[in-house]
Amino acid sequence: MKNPLLEEFNTPFNTIPFEEIKLEHYQPAMVKAMEMGKADIQAIKNNSFSPDFNNTIEALERSGKQLDVISSIFFNLHSCETNDEMQQIAQELSPMLSAYADDILLDEDLFKRIKVAYEKTDKQKLSKEAAMLLEKTYKSFVRNGANLDDESKKILKELNTQLSMLSLTFGENLLKDSNQFELWIENEKDLAGLPDGVKEAASMSAKEKGKDNLWLFTLDYPSYIPFMMFSEKRELRQKIYMAFGSRSFNDNEYNNEKIVKEIAAARHKKAVLLGYASHADIVLEERMAEKPARVYSLLNELLEHAKPVAIKELKEIQELCNKLNGPNPMERWDFSYYSEKLKNEKFAINDEILKPYFQLEKVIDGAFKTAQKLYGITFEKRDDIQKYHKEVTTYEVKTEDGNHLAVFYADFFPRASKRNGAWMTSFRGQNKYDNKEQRPLVSIVCNFTKPTETKPSLLTFNEVTTLFHEFGHALHGMLADGHYESLSGTSVYWDFVELPSQLMENWCYEKECLDMFARHYQTNELIPIELVQKIKDSANFLSGYQTVRQVGLGRLDLAWHNLTEIPTNSVSEFETNATIETELFAPVKGINTSCAFSHIFQGGYSAGYYSYKWAEVLEADTFEYFLETGVFNKETAKKFRDNILSRGGSEHPMELYKKFRGQEPSTKALLRKSGLLKK
Question: Which of 64, 141, 383, 632 could form a cystine bridge with 146, CB 3.0-4.6 A?
Answer without folding.
Answer: 141
